Amino acid sequence: LVAGSLAMGAAHAIDMSIMNDMYIGFDVDKTSIAFKTLEQVDYARIYQSVFTAYTPYIGYEIYPAFALELGYYNSAYRPKTVSTIKGSVPIAGTSNAKVTGWYLDALTEYNVWEGLDLLGAVGVERIQLGVNNVNSVGYYLTPTYVLGAQQQTVARLSLGLGYDFTKHMSARFMVRANNATLAQTAHYVMHYSLGVQYAL
What we know:
Elements: H1 2-20, E1 22-35, E2 37-38, E3 41-42, E4 50-63, E5 66-75, E6 78-86, E7 89-113, E8 116-131, E9 135-136, E10 150-164, E11 169-178, E12 186-199
Antiparallel strand pairs: 1-4, 1-12, 2-3, 4-5, 5-7, 6-7, 7-8, 7-9, 8-10, 10-11, 11-12
């Protein structure tokens, strides 16, 4: 009985220790896609290039100033009136696109001032440009002429600043870059985010 009680106590202590090293957070993310021209189609004129996404995440501090973080982002659909050409063929209509994705980052921090930290991270990201529907004028805005929903897994780099209000509550600003080409329709993707986080 004593041994059983000790084992239960040890297990509870381990659980509490794990919880004490975890944090949760929420970012508002501005995602910017640097579209390019592919096969005579200017994709910057086909889809919206800037999306506002919302990013809940959870992290675990493995060592002091080093953590693993898992997050998910999702934006609303944004319509765009399309008016461009492919060679001499007009492309016109309305597109409706959004971005979603998840990421896993290894994050570190360096204290530069009391409460102020320089943040850096490397990780992997799964990004998707989703197309809900495309209403064409005539028949021009069709998969024959443009590429629709695209998804890709890419590496990413992040830099930012964090500020600790209390032992448990902090805020951060992050700039993230990845080399997603989205089926060769883009050069790269940038994320600019501002959010808060709570250490458990």
